[in-house]
Amino acid sequence: MKQTNLSIAFHLFVIISAFSLCSCKDTTTISSPKPDDQKESGNSAKNISQIEPVAIKVADEQPADAIVIATELKEAYQIRNKKHNLLLRPQNANKADGVPIVLYSAYPWKCLSWQFEKGQKDSYRLVNFFTSKTIQPAENHSDDFVPVVQATSDSQHPLTQYWFFIKLPGGLYKIVSANSNLALTAIDSAGGVQIYLAPFKDKDEQKWELEDLPEKLTM
Prior knowledge:
Layout: H1 2-31, H2 35-60, E1 76-81, E2 87-90, E3 101-104, E4 114-118, E5 124-128, E6 134-137, E7 146-151, E8 163-168, E9 172-177, E10 183-189, E11 192-198, E12 208-211
Antiparallel strand pairs: 1-4, 1-12, 2-3, 4-5, 6-7, 7-11, 8-9, 10-11
């Protein structure tokens, strides 16, 4: 009987010990990171690294309305208005000061061609190949529509004779006086299409294309 009791006690001890070991193993397993948790953490790090280059790209992009001034133009062009499809020149190719600047049909003429003299802060002075004179706003005009006229190049008053060429979509330019925020604008008049300075309204008469000179200039 005593031996039977000892046998029963021994078997109970083995069963209790085995149960205790199983309980410890489960507790340890729950407290340790799961392989799936580690995999999910690795995926999160990968997703962050993929987002970063996109964020940098967006930060580097310029706003749609950013002003971009042309800094490296060629030495000479003909200048065509988008609306009228005509070229810039002094009226009647007259060499006198004060002659209105107008638009005219395209020809390989010197009076329709302009030398670009670079000035300060990426501005340019336009010198006509035929008259050897430049353009500037007419004096004694304070309103928003100022006639643009021919003038002798004057180193004493450079701002009125220099222009910024601001890039627009489609390879076009806005031409703005370095002395104001007004833009070259082609306006119909009794004598044809005359050039004025006016506030920029994003109209085709205020947009310009720079064209390479013809191979040979005449007149």
